[in-house]
Write a structure and sequence with these properties.
The protein is of the alpha/beta class. The protein has 3 domains: about 5-135, Response regulator (Rossmann fold); about 155-385, pyruvate-formate lyase- activating enzyme (Alpha-Beta Horseshoe), CATH 3.80.30; about 390-450, OB fold (Dihydrolipoamide Acetyltransferase, E2P) (Beta Barrel), CATH 2.40.50. About 35% of the residues lie in helices and about 20% in strands. The chain contains 16 helices and 19 strands. A 6-stranded parallel beta sheet has the order 2-1-3-4-5-6, with helices on both faces. Strands 15-16-17-19-18 form a 5-stranded mixed β-barrel. A 3-stranded parallel beta sheet has the order 7-10-11, sandwiched between helices. Helix 8 (about 190-200) runs parallel beside helix 10, helix 10 packs parallel to helix 11 and helix 14 packs parallel to helix 15 (about 360-385). This is tRNA-2-methylthio-N(6)-dimethylallyladenosine synthase.
């Protein structure tokens, strides 16, 4: 379909995008939004006011499938859209995995597009509007350059910047390599140019995205060049750099050095361990041992004292024993994580781990999960106590949902920070700006205090 024809069909239509899953999905949603904007569509505040509803999906855990089915089913009870015809589209990892088969599970979906085909979304939706057909496009051998698509960022001060797509690790529990494909790195020059443009546009913070940023460049240059990328991105003048995800087996000494030496790289690292048991790590195909992970933590802390460490941990991997779990528990206590994302293992068809039988009762797994959560709550609380009495720079993101006069933002260590809006200040004075906050209260998941000085 010609672009002018697509615009004729879509101009004036309203759209709403709901995103599930990882930061890469958030970035993909911003690109889909930008593409629809470019054809004259208008963003709606809710599904009720939208002619186009897009679900960007994740399939890492089984609950994601049920959540999608529930969301699609709820669309049936909505009042008619502004145009009288609503198109429902599903993208992301579930769409890539299931393709046309998704049509049998959700009978009111009109468009399905995969992780490699964002650039075709507008055309697929326009075709569905034009003749009422159900459109499916989930090729595995086509890689849209999503970074070249128009961009509708959710906020002006932060940007997601993908540096690579895909994954080569094939952890035995993970479906991501099957729905995102193999690793494909952008050039260093392309990423640096993009960040430089963002700086000129007023962006204060970027998050570099990849399923494993530590292997950035291996496919293109023959060896990882993530450390070099960090240094060059730091030279653009960007004030804050974060990145995710970071695989322990590929975190090189030169990357740790770059993190320590580039002032704009924030003192925070998400380093997924998944398990504290070497036996389970081998079953997971993680390719490092408990001892190697803890040695890596020591080396990181030696170069970056006070760094905030976060992680992912899976409880109940098939065959996990109480001894294995106790090793995970002790590792979490030893590391002293500032934050952890804890999950009960979710069986994913098509992954090697899905073939492993496990007789462990669900109540045993739940008990282990609850014990781990208590340990993480303790380490997070202890970590936050270090901020008491200190003045820290906070990038203000908005206001607390519970109190519209309470600022909410992030510290360099990615801690959530609250502070009352000073008298005479307006939201425009502070959102997207950095303010110093004197911390007088430290809880498990947040810090609070008072603003000291002017926003900058």
């Amino acid at each position: 379909m010609e672009p002018n024809r697509i615009r004729d069909v879509l101009v004036g239509k309203t759209y709403y995008i709901r995103t599930f899953g990882c930061q890469m999905n958030l970035h993909d949603s911003e690109r889909v939004s930008g593409l629809l904007d470019s054809f004259g569509c208008l963003e709606a505040a809710s599904p009720e006011g939208a002619d186009i509803v897009v679900f960007m999906t994740c399939c890492v855990r089984e609950a994601a499938d049920q959540r999608l089915y529930g969301q699609c089913s709820s669309m049936k009870s909505l009042p008619p859209s502004p145009s009288g015809h609503r198109v429902i589209a599903v993208g992301g990892c579930i769409a890539q995995r299931d393709g046309e088969g998704l049509l049998t599970n959700v009978d009111n979906v009109d468009v399905i597009f995969g992780t490699h085909s964002l650039g075709h979304v507008a055309e697929l939706i326009a075709r569905s509007f034009e003749d009422g057909s159900r459109q499916v496009f989930t090729p595995e051998d086509v890689q849209d350059e999503a970074t070249s698509l128009p961009w509708h960022r959710a906020v002006s001060y932060h940007a997601w910047v993908p540096i690579m797509t895909g994954c080569n690790n094939f952890c035995s529990y993970c479906i991501v390599p099957y729905v995102r494909g193999r690793e494909k790195s952008r050039t260093i020059e392309e990423v640096v140019d993009e960040v430089g443009g963002l700086v000129r546009a007023g962006v204060r913070e970027v998050t570099l995205l990849g399923q494993n940023v530590n292997s950035f460049g291996r496919d293109r240059y023959g060896h990882p060049r993530f450390a070099e990328l960090l240094r060059q991105v730091g030279d653009t003048g960007i004030e804050r750099i974060r990145f995710t995800s970071s695989h322990p087996k590929d975190l090189l000494p030169e990357t740790i050095d770059a993190m320590a030496e580039v002032p704009s790289v924030m003192p925070q690292l998400h380093l997924a361990v998944q398990s504290g048991s070497t036996r389970i790590l081998k079953e997971m195909n993680r390719r490092y041992t408990r001892e190697q992970y803890l040695d890596l933590i020591d080396r990181i802390r030696d170069r970056i004292p006070g760094i905030a460490l976060s992680t992912d941990i899976i409880v109940g991997f098939p065959g996990e024993t109480e001894e294995d779990f106790l090793e995970t528990l002790s590792l979490a206590q030893t590391v002293g994580y500032a934050q952890a994302f804890t999950f009960i293992y979710s069986r994913r068809e098509g992954t090697p781990a899905a073939r492993i039988e496990d007789p462990t009762p669900r109540e045993v797994i739940q008990n282990r999960f609850d014990r781990l959560v208590k340990v993480i709550e303790g380490t997070a609380y202890d970590f936050n106590q270090q901020a008491l009495g200190r003045t820290i720079p906070v990038l203000v993101e908005g206001f607390s949902k519970k109190d519209s006069h309470m600022l909410q933002g992030k510290s360099p260590k990615n801690q959530t920070v609250h502070a009352p809006l000073p008298e005479g200040w307006t939201p425009e004075d502070v959102v997207g700006h950095i303010v110093d906050v004197e911390v007088d209260r430290a809880r498990t998941w947040y810090l609070s205090g008072t603003v000291a000085g002017e926003p900058r």
